[in-house]
Amino acid sequence: MYQRLERGQGNVVAYEIGDSVTEEEVREILGQLREAVGEHGRIRLLVRMRGWPENATAALTERLRFAKDHFGDIDRYAVVGDHRLAEFLTEATDKVVDMELRHFDHSDEEAAWAWVGGS
């Protein structure tokens, strides 16, 4: 289950990811992100997660293809979550990709919104 968050405006795209996300849902999200890149050129992304999705590897091939094609199109990527694995993967990925990527705890979500939307 996922929900696109209406608070995301302009080139800021935001989602909440639930306990589980299907391959079809991942494809929908990636399609929406491609549309946002097409419309805005470069985007900023905020993803709120509660826990860690059971099937976090859903549509892995499509996700890797998207990453290869569009990581350069994402200026800032905020991951808001309380799972240690999300924090670890965010910090590790930040060291090897050419975008600003940060992890925020749920208690710091407002700071995440300010960071992802700031200059």
From TrEMBL:
Pfam hit, one: SpoIIAA-like
InterPro entries: SpoIIAA-like (IPR021866), SpoIIAA-like_sf (IPR038396), STAS_dom_sf (IPR036513)
Domain of life: Bacteria
Protein name: STAS/SEC14 domain-containing protein
Natural source organism: Nocardiopsis metallicus
